[in-house]
Specification:
Blueprint (H helix, E strand, L loop, with lengths): L15 H11 L4 E6 L6 E6 L5 E6 L6 E8 L5 E7 L2
Antiparallel strand pairs: 1-2, 3-4, 4-5
The chain binds zinc ion.
């Protein structure tokens, strides 16, 4: 069986900022970073768990293309995030 790559499961959500704000209010543990989508060029704010490090895949909220995120931590704990195309 051939699975259509990608877009079906993703709903573009311009309300993501609100969700992040709500998470901040209740848990106060999420960090947000702004990355530039390598597909559509939009600057998109994403929420990171403070423990997040390494590589992960996340869909662009604007164009639903998959990102490969590489999260590194500096000595002071600040995240440095790189975004590549995941396909
Ligand atoms: Zn995009």
């Amino acid at each position: 069986m051939i699975r259509a790559a990608g877009r079906d499961g993703c709903t573009p959500a311009r309300k993501a900022g609100e969700a992040v704000a709500a998470a901040w209010d209740t848990a106060g543990v999420l960090e947000t970073v702004v990355v530039q989508c390598p597909y559509c060029g939009e600057q998109v704010e994403i929420a990171l768990d403070p423990e997040s490090e390494g590589r992960m895949v996340q869909d662009c909220e604007v164009c639903c293309q998959p990102w490969l995120l590489t999260v590194r931590r500096r000595r002071d704990g600040e995240p440095a995030v790189e975004v590549e195309r995941a396909q």
